[in-house]
Amino acid sequence: MLRDVRAGGDSAVRRYASLLDDADLDTLEVPEAELEAAWDDTPDDLKQALQLAARRITEFHEATLPRDWVDLSGGLGELVRPLERVGLYAPGGTAAYPSTVLMTAIPARVAGVSEVVLATPRRGQEPLNSTVLAAARIAGVDAVYQVGGVPAIGALAYGTETIRKVDKICGPGNVFVAYAKRMVQGQVDIDGVFGPTETILLADESANPVFCAADLIAQAEHDPMASAILVTDSQNLIYTVEAELDALERQGCIVLVDDFTEAIAVANHIAPEHLCLMVANPWAWAGQVRNAGGLFLGEFSPEVMGDYIAGPSHVMPTGGTARFSSALSVHHFLRTMPVVGLSLQRFTDLGAAAVRIAEAEGLPGHAGAVQARLDHIAAMQTR
Question: Coiled coil: which residue ranges (predicted)?
Fold first, then answer.
C-alpha cells in the first residue's frame, strides 16, 4: 500500500479508501462546509470543555518551550527552529479521540510549526466525527483530510497531488498504522510506535481503595490489551481493592511488595507509560522515580485527568520505552542548531589543540585548515 500511494498519489489513496472504508471520495480534503457543520453540531458545553483543555495544554507547553542562547564571549550558541509541516493521524469509528487531536496539534503549534494537518478516515458515507473536527478547529489545524489507515500514512510521508509531504507524523492508530509509521520513519520523523496503554498504580495503606479500583478499571477500559497494575505494601488495601475489580480479571494484576522502596524499584524496572503514586506524601517519593512516561501524584491527580485536561500531552512511551524516550512535547517539533562564532583570540587559544587532534586522527587537511589560520595570525602579529 505504501508503494502504491508513493507511485499513484491521489488515485491510489482514493482506491484504498473505497476498498478498505467503502468511501467514494470526490476530494481528499474535508470541505469547509462540513467543518462548519461539525462545529455547529458540537454541543456548547463540550466546546467549552475542549477549549478549557486547549488552554491548559497551551499553558503547559509554553512553559517548557526552549529558547535560543548565545555566548558571545565564548563564541558559542544554539538556535531553536520549529519543523515546517506536521501531519496528525486520528483513528475513525469507535476509536475517535478529540483529546488526542488537542494533545498532538497544540504542542506543534506552540513550538511554532508553520502548518499542521490532520488525516482521519471516512467510513462509507457516514459523516466524520464532529467532535474530532471541532477539536481540530480549536487546536488550529490548517487542513483535514478524510483518509485513514496505511494510505493516510503513506500520503503524509511521501506526498500526493493533494496532500503535501510532512516532516513528522504523530498520532495513534491500529497495528497497521503503527507498522506503516515505522516503515516510513527516515523518510519522515514519527512520534513513536506505541503499544497497548499501561498504568502502574503504587499505593500505600493511606490510599482510598475506591479511587484505586476506579483508576485501574478506567485504564482497562481503553482496549482488551491495556494493562493495569496495582503495586502495594499493604495487604489490607489488596483485600478492599479486589472486591471492586471483577471487571479487571485478565487485564491487570496486584503485586504485594515488602515496602515502598521495593515498589518504586518495580516501577522503575517496568518503566510504564503512566505511573501513579497514591501515597501519603507523593512528592517525597517523586525524586526516586527514574523511568515513567508520565508521573501522577496523589489521589486527585488520576491518570484520567492527564488523558483530557491536566496539560501535558497524553501521548506517552509504552512497552518499557520510557527508559529512553519521553512524552510528546514541544521538543518533538523543534530542531536545534549549534552555532560556532569564535573570535580571533578564542581561535588562537584553541587552534593548537585542534591541530594536534587532527594529526592524531591522520587528517592532515583538517590540521592544515587550522594551521593556515594560526600562521596567518602569527604573521600579522610580527608586523
Answer: none
Distance CA 188, CA 158 (A): 8
Query: Considering 32, 62, 205, 274, which one is annotated as catalytic?
Result: 274
- Nearest-angstrom CA–CA distance, 3 and 5: 6
φ, ψ dihedrals at 72, nearest 5°: -65, -35
Please give the DSSP secondary-structure letter assigned to residue 130. Answer: H
- How sure is the predictor about 246, in pLDDT bands with cuts at 50, 70 and 90? low
Cβ 104 vs Cβ 9: under 8 Å: no
Q: Which of 273, 299, 303, 332 is catalytic?
A: 273
Catalytic residue list contains 269: no
Q: Which three cell numbers stand for residue 79?
A: 538556535
CA 84 to chain centre: 17
Quick check: 158 and 56 in contact, CB under 8 A?
no
Coil vs helix vs strand at 256 = strand
Kindly report, residue by residue over 90-108, the tens digit of the pLDDT: 987 556 789 999 999 999 9
156, 9 Cβ separation under 8 angstroms: no
- Segment 345-360 mean pLDDT: 97
The percentage of residues in the chain with a pLDDT greater than 90, rounded to a whole number, is: 87
Rounded to whole angstroms, the Cα distance separating 288 from 285 reads 6
pLDDT tens readout for residues 186-243: 999 999 988 888 999 999 999 999 999 999 989 888 777 888 999 999 999 999 998 8
How does pLDDT run across 8-24, given as a tens digit for each residue? Answer: 999 999 999 999 999 99
Catalytic residue flag (residue 222): no
pLDDT at 248: 55
Nearest to 193 by CA among 176, 207, 179: 179
Say which residues have a Cβ less than 8 Å from residue 109's Cβ, sequence separation at least 6: 58, 116, 139, 140
Instruction: List, edge to edge, every strand of the sheet that includes 334-340.
Output: 69-71, 76-82, 334-340
Cell digits of residue 56: 491548559
> How many CB atoms within 10 Å of residue 272?
27
Alpha-carbon distance of 117 to 87, in angstroms, equals 5
